[in-house]
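Quick note —
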Amino acid sequence: MTDQSMNILDHLDELRKRVMVVLAAFIIFFIASFVFVTNIYDWFVKDLDMTLTVLGPLDIVYVYFLLAGVIALGLSIPVLIWQIWLFVKPALTKREQRLTIIYIPASLFLFIAGLSFGYFIVLPLVLNFLTGLGSDMFTMMFTTDKYFQFVLRMTIPFSILFEMPLVVMFLTSLGIVTPKGMQKNRKYAFFVIVVISVLISPPDFISDVLVIIPLLFLYEVSIILSSIIFRRKLKKEQENENTEV
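Predicted structure written out below.
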């Protein structure tokens, strides 16, 4: 067996170990979440003015597994990020290790901030608008599975969108994105952000503004962070050129 083949096998073995750690963490969190699933359920529906319904016995099991799975997945994300970093760490220089490890707490913070924004701001706005829209025409009765699917759709996208600054920083470090390019295409980016915000928020001015402003702010923050990374990247390249000379 060649050295290259042995290296590949070593990497695959290391990857398998990291995957097993993440799966073990997910299973542990899933079991813990399942034990306390009724408490989790009560917390999610405490602000509802109605009792959720189920259409069959299997719907109860589905909701239990859905809640436990989502909570376990959310709790496993820090473990996943940490294991990914440990996997790529040997290929990084000391300086790159110090820089990339900063991304771990930052990504978690932005993920939680996105979830909180979606759950505490966007979800009530959209839910109140939709229930008010049909209150005079229909008898409101939400099934449990449909309600929690709705909650996920109103929260998960924002947890992803809030990762924009970190993604921009990473792409800038690779040379794919530049702050000048982001500034030049700002109007197109703003247009896309406004369209997305209008589509996912209720059709009233206040709701649109509450969704648009944070996303525009994130874009501006992304430009600032991209500028910092870009200047550091240029400085490092100049230092390397001077060293070679």
